[in-house]
User: Fold these one by one.
Assistant:
Number 1:
Amino acid sequence: MTEDSGSRQLELLKFLVEQSSVRWEWSAARSYLNSERTLGILIHTALALMIFGIAIDRFGLFVHRLPWLAAHGLPDTPSWESVMLISLGVLLALVAGVRYLFFISAYSHNRHMPLRGGAFLPPIFALLFAAYGVALLVVILVH
Amino acid sequence: MSEQDTIEQIKLLQQQLLQLSAERTYMNTERTLSVWVRTALGMMIFGIAIDRFGLLLHGLPWLPHESVHRLTLSTWGGAVLVALGVLMALTMNIRFLGYARIYRRSHDWPVKHGPYLAASFASLVAVFGIALLIILLAFI
């Protein structure tokens, strides 16, 4: 191997290492975005659980208030299915939000966040939504 | 093929791979925005459902005249959710546009994949949510 050929190969290796490190960064960014999307989908699932819960509860109330059924004196208490579904939604949003917080704190140790200025927005939304679910539960149980 | 040609070809392939990797990441970001917009829409739907259910249960014609208040707990509960949806669509959109601006500095957009479509739809959902909020709080 000539000296010229050796230096060309060394230059190529340096180039490859440089390109690989940039590609590694893009790959890490994709992992981060994937995790954020997972949180978004989990919030969506929590939302669906709560919607189902509230639909069961409200339809139950509506049916109990129908004139031909109201005479039977059916209770206006919330059904256990609705309470369970809303609680599941709260739990899911809460657990997903906290898990994501742990993930981004570990991720940001040695990498920069791909979406600057908004890393904490998704878990904030998850926790706000969980808080809303808790309020909903209180209203359903107390009201 | 000479050694120099091979080296040049490897370099070219690497650059193309890097561009593809960047494009995949950009599309990931756009898809992430889309998921957030869908979640925001879900919140708005939930908000409206809560408000309308409250209205329905308070306004049943056969019940002894339960007064239909303009702003019941259900309306406030619904409005909070719609507002959360608007906030979600807006902030995620702003974040996406910031990312797209930084991305454009170093890479080309994927073919016919500028940020305009996703960003405009996110903005439209936010505008729709604001209109919904006004209707919810101003009218029954």
Note: Chain B has a mean pLDDT of 87.
Number 2:
Amino acid sequence: MTSVVYTLRTVPSGRHPPEGVLRIQRHPLKGDVTRRIVRDMSTAIRTAGLRKRYGRTVALDDLDLEVAPGEIHGFLGPNGAGKSTTIRILLGLARADDGTAEVLRADPWHDAASLHARLAYVPGDVTLWPNLSGGETIDLLARLRGYGRSSAYRRERDRLLHAFALDPRTKGRAYSKGNRQKVALVAAFACPADLLLLDEPTSGLDPLMEVVFQQELRRVHEHGTTVLLSSHILSEVEQLCDRVSLVRAGRVAETGTLDDLRQLTRTQVSFADTGAALPPLPGAHDVERSNGRVRFTVDSDDVASVLPTLGAARVTGLRVEPPSLEELFLRRYGERVDAGVGE
Amino acid sequence: MNVIGPLLRARLRRDAVQLTLWIACTLALAAAAVVGVRGQFPTVEDRQGLLAAAIANPVILLFRGLPSGSDEAAFTTFLIAPFLMLLAALMSTFLAVRHTRGDEETGRAELIAATPAGRSAALIATVGHGILADVVLGALVALAFLGFGYPARGSLVLGLSVTATGLVFFAVALVAAQVVRTSRVANAIGVWAVLIGLLVCGLGNALGTPSADLQRMRSAPLAWISPYGWAENVRAFDADDARPLLLSLALTVVCALVAFALHRSRDLGASLLPAPRGAAAAGRLLSGPLGLAWREGRGAVIGWTVGGLVVGLLATRLSSVIAQIGDTIPSVQAVLQALAAQGSLAQGAVEVFFTLAGILAACAGVQMIARLRQDEAAGLAEPLLAAAVSRSRWLGAGLALSAAAIIGVLGAAVVGAAVGLATTDGGDTSLLRDAVVSAGGQALAAAAIAVIAALAFVFVPRLAVLIGWAVVGVAAIVGLFGPLLGLPDAVVRASPLASVPVVSGDTVDPRGAVVWAIVVIVAGGAAVLGIRRREVVADR
């Protein structure tokens, strides 16, 4: 990805004028140019050697995470891997036993209040004050972050209420799971933020609202907001995220762009089985003949080397399938993943 | 298919610890009363003296039972029965709401209703559970008194009256749970009914007709509109006449039928009174943790403040009643003169009532701190702390509202006292000075209790609610009844409610003011510093 960086003069906007950098990036494949104002800092989130235990349970074990400014960073891992604990530490709701955490160049534990004016958080299981209406809750959260009185905020809030089809007059106790989630999402998107911490934010949302969520996330991304997105909806992560980190047992097992991760995983190749003897397949692993097809896997950067052989053998019904994120996920975490998974 | 059995067992299992503790505390109170009476009032003369003083002083009767002679068992019943009934009533109220509206609110009722149990089995099981709890409590109270060597018939009648009172308020709470949408409101209605019933009965007894020898009192008709009045008029260990309990039984049955009728006619989760719609946007006040705390706690604060107003009004209004009785009955006059040697009786009344107002203020103050913890446990601290609110500001809002509630309750008590004086012919205006001094002292006491709750909230969050209410309860019992239970002075003074400034004669006795002020400052400071180092502890 090529990127040209121009320094920009300070632009006052909102309470926290970004001491900004204009980053213009050209997408290598699509060729479209994006312009983002991002804060001039090396990382938006950086943790080093985070450790946290609850009694005998080790929640985090030497977790290193880096999120670059302006990116949407996917945060993946099975239940109990430590994703929520990490986010709680990044919010200063819990304190690490060891290691360091830095969010927007601030210490999340000591500078929590001032830091939180610049970020928004959406948990996966939203609790609302039972006797406050959704509209009141959204306004309260906005005011706590220092917005909420401007007409710009009101316009944005009304637009989001409409987009998410949310009735603001229902009391907190009466909302369904999905609607509670929407209240938190509207509150998070209604005010400008430098960073969004999203912990499975779309759990309980219907597919229509999932689309609205993705639109809104892209919108704030365009404006330079950094996003840490913990999610189990892998298609969502695949579509939205610039980079992902895979967490396992309290540490980041892998981190990189999706392409980077795919390189680490073999690509699955299959073609119609005519019953004839197989040609020699350089670099092929796990060759298997079943259900009228020949399947094997090959290192993702080795795919090209096997194609001439297949061409010479004039195979039919050729399929070359780079691993989906789901496959990556299952390969990393599944106890035993059958060869056919993901097909 | 028997579905009631499993539901009933599940209820017993869920409440096992809670009900055991509750019943054990009730029995401990009963035992303490017997031991206290035997220690403090061993002879008939001692008991006759106290009865005469109590009958002469309606303030005492307001918080005691119905005087029914100087026999030791009847005398103990006079002193402690209303509190045993109060504990039974509160236990039953919370039990009723917990297993009906509480379960509906959390969605558990839906899970049960989706099984063959259907919608009504849960309510039937709850009724069975409530009856069982109250019968066990009454039986154990009877056994306890029997164990102390009191007559069997009287023990049985006393146990029955405790059970009957518990059941009445159990049924009232069942109705409340059908009428309103949330368990918080249903509990509030139930507790108000319990307290108003106690107050009405106390007033009815205080305004009754004493016998010539000042050993017995006939309740005024007012007492007969309260379930406590029925239960006290059985006169356990004296007349042993259980017939008034038929009224309790009748009211219980009527309320239970109403509850079942309401339950049958409504949807699961719905209520007779519709849930109001909320505002589309937040009002001006709702813009920070303090505004939020006020929004959440205002109903409770207003309730406690009304309580303070009533108590303040009684503090000065009742002293005129005392004077009237003294004028008409010579034997009362003699007792009054004896009591007045240690300071004016009206002054004593103000002190007692303002101690009561102090308990209300402490309840209000602790409730505001307990709310912090309940919100935190429910996961509601996170959205605040994730939104530019520091921990100290979060606790600060709770402490500020707690202080405001305490000042509100005692301020209302002073206003009530002033109104009481202004509407009494020839009221002694110096009583207002006594009221102001007592209110200030009690505010200090309530603040000390609330700050201890805050300290628990910071350092042992999971136990904070329990500790907060336990401190209120112990301070109230020790402060109000310590001398009666024969506790040493040092123990009584450990209750802030009993060791803050009062007016004695014409001088202000500061008592433990300095100590409690130091407690407030040190514990408050420790809490504010400690919260900065504490993580959020949700229960989920």
Note: Residues 1-21, 336-343 of chain A have pLDDT under 50 and may be disordered.
